[in-house]
Amino acid sequence: MPHLHHGAAISSASVLITAMLVFTALVYLRGCLSLRSNSLGGIAGWRVCSFLVGLFLIWLAVASPLSGLDHQSLTVHMLKHLLLMTVAPPLIWLSEPVRAWSQGLPAAFVRIFQRPLMLGLGDFLARPQLGWLAAAAALILWHIPPIFALGMRSAGWHFVEESSFLVTGLLFWWPIIQPWPSISQPDLSMILYLFFATIPCDILSGFLVFCDRVIYPGYLSSSHLFGFTALGDQQCAAALMWTCVTIVYLIAGVILATRLLSPQHVHDRGFVAKSQELPGGREAFQHGD
Q: Which of the 8 DSSP states describes residue 179?
């Protein structure tokens, strides 16, 4: 498989992506400082760390020296996908980025996203059905051999591939974490959401693990890292995806189940139900009136 990610192109793209991620971090930190100075309730330190770690993992996947090794090893290729879809997105949402950016960005820019059209679009994108379908489609589509090869041959399509993994990962994790301005309420359906999300991953990883031939022929002629054969590299990549996704989703499911069974959650549900019985109850609850 011809590899067209020339060194100069990779270097230029890495510098640009790194600059964008640094700018994103600075805007977020500016918003955090603004919230603290205005006595609006600062963002907890662990959330700030979560955001910075999430950005670092995105940089590691798309702009670090690791990003140039995916044409030599399917395991590295799969690791990048896991960072973009499974690990970085929940860390980003846990950091309450919308709240920080609403203070860190210029007011005129923030008002654009407060328009009814943009709010309606946000509600649509936050639907669990869309998040599940988008993540499953991206996972399956980009692992079809001809499309996989296209992403490896073309720098442009490779960028589209990595961007789609990050975007669909963010869409997938939004209804689970429900970051600000959503009202976070644990829901049993989200546990089922996580369970059914493992099915496409299980099918793909199981096929790659137990298949007795190399599915992506391009790796037959590449220099194999870690001493793996092409088939061994394929099995390692599939096992990595299978294990990582299962562990991350299991942890998320346990946290949701713990919150569902906590006495505080029962009390909060009763408060929400009573507030919704009052005139304008839902709106008053959301605005803290």
A: -
| Number of other residues whose CB lies within 10 A of the CB of residue 256 | 20
Q: Vertex 37, ends 36 and 38: CA angle to 5°?
A: 95
| Alpha-carbon distances, residue 288 vs 35, 98, 284 (angstroms) | 18, 18, 6
Q: For the segment 84-141, what is each residue's pLDDT rounded down to a tens digit?
A: 999 999 999 999 999 898 888 887 777 777 778 777 877 888 899 999 999 999 999 9
Closest Cα to residue 208, out of 238, 246, 171?
A: 238
User: What is the spatial distance between Cα 282 and Cα 276, in angstroms, rounded to a whole number?
Assistant: 5
Does residue 186 contact residue 230 with C-beta atoms inside 8 Å? Answer: no
- Other C-beta atoms lying within 10 Å of the C-beta of residue 247: 11
Structure tokens that stand for 81 in this block = 């996908």
Type of residue numbered 257: A
Backbone angles phi, psi at 113, to 5 degrees: -80, -5
Report the C-alpha gap between 250 and 254 in whole angstroms: 6
Distance of CA 203 to CAs 8, 17, 136, Å? 38, 33, 11
How many of the other CB atoms lie within 10 Å of CB of 35? 19
pTM of the predicted structure, to 2 decimals? 0.84
